[in-house]
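EI: anyone free to look at a 333-residue chain?
SC: sure, send it
EI:
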Amino acid sequence: MVVGVVLTIYALILDFMKSTGELRGYILILGVILLILGIFKMPNKKHTKIVNMVFLFPMIFTFAVTVIIPFILGIVYSFTDWNGIQVTKFVGLSNYITMFKQSDYVYSFVITVIYTVINMILVNVVGFALALVCSSKIKGTSFFRSAYFLPNLIGGLVLGYVWQFIFNKVFTTVFAGSVSMLTNANLALLAILIVNTWQYAGYIMLIYLTGLQTVPKDVLEAAGVDGASAITTLFKIKMPMIANTFTVCIFLTLVNSFKQFDLNLAITNGAPSRIMGADIIQSTELLALNIYNTAIRKNNYALGQTKAVVFFIILAVVSLTQVAISKKKEVEL
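SC: here you go
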């Protein structure tokens, strides 16, 4: 260990002195290796913990630099006039007050909640129904599983542009005289719901399918012997026994729906417009897209960061509450 320290220091001194020798890099590497080996062989009960920390440091440092520090800075920036480059002054709660006075933000919040509730129900119902089909004894279940999961492998932006073409060109051609759903302020959000359900239901199906396969067969056979119907078996045996699976799927769909961005951007980009009072707002601009437009398109980084902080708080509270309630239901079941 001593030799490792000496070699490391020597290599650093050579570097600071701007030495042109080719050996300084090899000396540094050798010194670090000897230092680590020395720590590992050190006659101390806690030396393994030191070694573990040495190897964990790169990952911890990366996580801190990419997640923890930006998150803390983001909270600080929400109280300033940050323009994306520098801060000139602190503005206190001004950004938060301005945010809640904006009709487009309030509207985005409301439709995001509506979208989340409907999408969460649709994806879980469709996903569970597909899981029941794929866990049955019909032929070709392997093909069905692959086919249902395939849409989830397509990127959100690519999928959005493909479906934009389908809504605007294919459907309007097949149904002559019809108008694209994406041009109707009342139907455009429904179009996003349809596409997201089509994409994400297959992924949720696999989780439900895994849960259904964990139900003991002897329990199902006993229910059949006792004369339980398929509906009774489903609601009284299968669903209670996979309550933890419902918790996971509801959590995933809740978070995914609330954070919806790529499909929203690719399919409608917030359009079409809607008139509310004296304001013209985007009828399908969900919260994530509203934050993006505020920061990037309107070049108001401080206000965009403020909306992002509130977005995180709401999502954390809602998701943790959902998990707590679902866990309580698991115990009751």
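EI: The chain has a mean pLDDT of 88.
SC: 👍
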